[in-house]
Amino acid sequence: MQLISPLLLSIVCVIILIDLVPLGKDWLSRIHIGRYQDKQVWNKSITRIGAKWLNTTPKIKVTDNTRWVVIDMLKGNYTKHAIQHWQEASLLLGLSEYLKTNKDQEVQRELMKFLSLKFDQNGQWIKMPKEVDGAILAYAVITLSFINPDLYKKAFDSTWAMIQEHIGDEGTVQYRKFMKNYRYVDTIGFICPFLVAYGTRYQKKECVELAVKQIKAYEEYGMLEQHFIPSHAYQVENKAPLGLYGWGRGLGWFAIGLIDAWNELPKDHEYKPVLEESVKKFAKAAIAFQQDSGNWNWTVARGECRPDSSTTATLGWFLLNAAKIEDISTPCLDSADRAIQYLMRVTRRNGEVDFSQGDTKDIGIYSLLFNILPFTQGFCIRLMNSKNNPKVV
What we know:
By secondary structure, the protein is mainly alpha-helical. It contains 14 helices and nine strands. Keywords: Hydrolase.
C-alpha cells in the first residue's frame, strides 16, 4: 500500500501535466504577440514558418478537449499525424506566390522535396488522394511557376478521374461518396480552381463547365438570398440549407473557389463575365461583414463571436484579387489592407499566425479552439506576397 500511493500520485501528476503543458506552451508563445509593424519583416517571418511546416508540419488536434486529454491520446483521437491535403495545398500556394517575387533557393528546395515525397518519377501520385480535397493540392502543383507542370499530368489526370467518381446524379460533386445527399461549401474551394486550371490548360471544356455548375448551383441553393453568404451545406433532394449561414471558413472556401476559378479563366472565355458577376456580389457581401478591427469572426454575422484568422486570411486573398475589377477596386483594396493589419496583430513573435478556428467536426458542429493552423499560415503568405507583386493588382 505504501508503494501504491506514491505511484498513483505520480500517475495523477503526469495526467495533469499532459493537460497543462500545451496550455502553458500557448501562453508562453503568445507573450509579445502582434508586435510586427513592418509588413516586409512580417512577410519574411511568416514565410519562414511556412517553409518549415511544408515538410515538417505541426500535429493538428482532432478533439477540442483540453482536460483529461490522455484518454484521447490512448484512443488515438488527440492529434492527426498526417496533415490534410487542403492544409498542404495552402502552404504550397503561399510559398509559390512568394517565389514569384523572391529568389530563395532554400524555399525552392523545400518545395522540390515536397514534390518528391508526393509524386513518383512518372509524375503520378505516390499515394493517390481518395477525397476531393486532393484537388486543391493538385491545383497548387499545376500553378507552380518554377517547374513544368506537365511533368505531373498523370497525377492531374488521376485527380480529374477521382472528381468524376464523386459526381452525383444531379451533376454536381459530392464532398464524400458516403454523403451523396449533401453538397458542402468546402467543395467549392477544393475542386473549382483545379477544374478550371486543368480544363483550360488541357482543353477539357467539361471540367470548366463542371466548376461553373458547382458554383452556380451553390449560389442557387446554398446562399442566404438577401445577404449572399453561404450555409455550410445543402440537401440535394429538397434543397434545404444545412448548418450555419455565415460560418466564417465556409465563406473562405466559397471565396477562394470562386476567385481562383475566375483568375484561371482567360479574359475572353465565355464564363469569365459569368463568374465576375458572382465575384462582385460576393465581394460586397464579404466587406459588409468585416469587423472594425479588420477581421471576420468565425460567425461573420455576429460581432460577439471570436475573430477567426483563417476566415480573415482567405477573404483577404479574395478581396485583393477582386480588386482587379475596376467597379469594386477601391473598397476591396481597403478591406484587404485592413485584413493584413489584423493578421499582423495576431502573429506570434516567431511568425506563427494565431487564433484560427480548429477543424470542423460535422455540419453545424464547429470547433471552440482557436490556435495555429497551416491553412491560415499559407494564405497569409499568399496574400502578402500577392500584395507585393505589382502584376497582381
